[in-house]
Design brief:
Number of strands: 5
Oligomer: single chain
Strand order of the largest sheet: 1-4-5-2-3
Mean pLDDT: 81
Shape: elongated
Number of domains: 1
Strand content: 35-45%
Distance between the termini: 60 Å
Order of helices and strands: HEEEEHEH
Radius of gyration: 17 Å
Largest sheet: 5 strands, antiparallel
């Protein structure tokens, strides 16, 4: 019975930590008018408990006004916990306002 409750506890831990979403707005994104569209999607990879970035999605972004939505899905959580945090994965989405995207193209 102890093993079953330990497995259930671990599954609950994985499920609750994979639901975390963080939104970061850069530039004047909040005050812009226009429809929000997804500009780019991808993964960010970090080493050593998020200390060393290996791959960042917004590193070469040539825009100043955008929103970065960072979350961990179940796959990302399994990788992070499976490596004890040495390798961390995040699912990232970059949103821009429609007028901003058309100005940059």
């Amino acid at each position: 019975m102890k093993n079953r409750s330990l497995v259930v506890l671990l599954l609950i831990l994985l499920a609750t930590t994979s639901c975390v979403v963080k939104k970061q707005q850069y530039g004047n994104y909040e005050n812009q008018i226009g429809k929000e569209v997804v500009y780019d999607k991808g993964k960010e990879i970090y080493l050593f408990w998020d200390q060393v970035p290996l791959q960042k999605l917004d590193k070469d972004l040539d825009m100043q006004n955008y929103e970065k939505v960072v979350k961990r899905n179940v796959f990302d959580t399994f990788i992070t916990y499976g490596t004890i945090g040495i390798v961390s994965y995040y699912s990232v989405k970059i949103n821009v306002k429609e007028q901003e995207q058309s100005d940059k193209e």
